[in-house]
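Standup notes, structure subgroup. Blocker cleared on the 4H7 input:
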Amino acid sequence: MRIDIISLFPEMFNAVFEQSIIGRARLSGRVDIIVHNLRDYTYDKHRTVDDTPYGGGSGMVLMPGPLYDAVTKVKSLPVGYMKEPQRLTVFMTPQGEPFKQQTAKKLTTIDQLILVCGHYEGFDERARMLLADLEISIGDFVLTGGEIPAMAITDAVVRLLPGVLGDEYSAHEESFTENLLEYPHYTRPRNFKGLEVPEVLLSGNHGEIAKWRKEMAKERTKKRRPELLK
Ligand code: 4H7
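Run returned:
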């Protein structure tokens, strides 16, 4: 899979995508992540990307021109040796479709995912109309830009790609897929500041342990996220 990100702050992604599981997935060639600077697609000497809103009001709006040129260029790039790669352009916006584990799963089937990060007051509506196949929101809160949503989506998708997680992990995947929150985890020491590890986990009885974990997961979900059980 190939993921292209278009942003005014491409440096923001370096540390995040070089670390840990995502970093390893890139090194092993399971994903190609390329970050593009929107400013490289400007046409004036000041490299302008935004302008004042028609109709007045505060803040600036991202001009459609540079966005159009950037997305068009990125869509023309090869994806491996594929003849007709499936490409999807996604705008990160607070008005987008709520991002779910199910969305992440669906996106793993795309050959080239293009994530476009907005800033200031957002995108000119025509950029959205002409370029966005999908708009995604990572939750009901406001951020200064789409970079953190793009990182979140990339992380959620890449960890689902074949071979990215070790086997011990991937079975674990169940949690959100089954619409349950995770059961509580414990490691050493057995007693920490007077708090004991539940006896069943020390029993060596794997059937009982599985039953207890399922029960705890259900209980937690009922208490914290009852809407997930419906
Ligand atoms: C596109 C349009 C996503 C991108 C507007 C992006 C939250 C999310 C942005 C805006 C985002 C999310 C610009 C609207 C800054 C608000 C103060 C970038 N925020 N913004 N304004 N929930 N912000 O996924």
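Discussed briefly. The mean pLDDT is 95.
Next: hand off to the docking folks.
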